[in-house]
């Protein structure tokens, strides 16, 4: 999968972000996207082929794998990366609208089209709320799908067509567990950064409005 589009999106958003927002971009790009591309994707690359059960009943391994891993960790992580980054497009589109409006009317409407104020402030706050909400949704989804943030070495499966309860073994469980914890930790860090930036902007512009009065 090519991640160039996400890299370009994050680079574009970085121009219009606050200091906290730039830290968020750095965390997403360095500690999430690069780790995913460089390591995590390869660890889960052959997860189905390396999932083994102690019986060769046709269809048993496939059914058990689908039961315990309804969605691949790494694919869900990729979807999370895409989803939490796309609300930033709202800010990019809003700035593009401002610039296009000035160009179309050949008139200066804004001191700086990329400055976070007025309507752009509302758009920026909405994008922060959406990013935070999506991070929380995916953390809950991970927890519910896999019965907690853990990867067992052994799972017991008694789903048909398995003739009885069979033992199935997951490959590289320790390595996968480390990356899963890393995923959860960076996701929590991004939530904290988003909430901090949201609080900062609300406080900053509340004080500004108060002083104007």
UniProtKB/TrEMBL annotation:
Instruction: Give the source's domain of life in one word.
Output: Eukaryota
The answer to whether UniProt assigns keyword Membrane to this entry is yes
Family membership noted in the UniProt record: Belongs to the connexin family.
The Connexin cysteine-rich domain is annotated at 134-201
**Molecular-function GO term, any one:** gap junction channel activity
User: What GO biological process terms are annotated to this protein in UniProt?
Assistant: cell-cell signaling
Residue intervals of the Connexin N-terminal domain = 42-75
One CC-aspect GO term? connexin complex
Protein name as catalogued: Gap junction protein
Membrane topology annotation: Multi-pass membrane protein
